[in-house]
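Box 3.1 A note on notation
Throughout this textbook, protein chains are presented in two layers. The first layer is the amino acid sequence; the second is a token string describing backbone geometry. Keep the layers aligned when reading.
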Amino acid sequence: MALVTVKPKFQVTIPAKLRKDIDIREGDIMEATLIGDGILFKPKEVVDRVAAADRIAAKFAETQPSPADRRRSEDEIMRDAIDDIARSRRERRSRGA
């Protein structure tokens, strides 16, 4: 067990071995949760929504529609995609994810 000191502005230094074990780097985002009489810090991934949307749009641009989808309007395909996303979210929430 490593001991750390609370510095001015309530900063602590995470020991090098712990940082390396879970690959924490300067600038990473951590989630802090109160657990009993302690604090649990967990690394979190931050998603740049604009960059993610650009990557998704690029993938859609590369995708060729199936012969069945070629006969459908863009609105029909979009409605089905939105329904699929909503169904997936409901299933994930019902599993407690």
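DSSP finds four helices and two strands in the chain. Strands lie at 29-35, 38-44.
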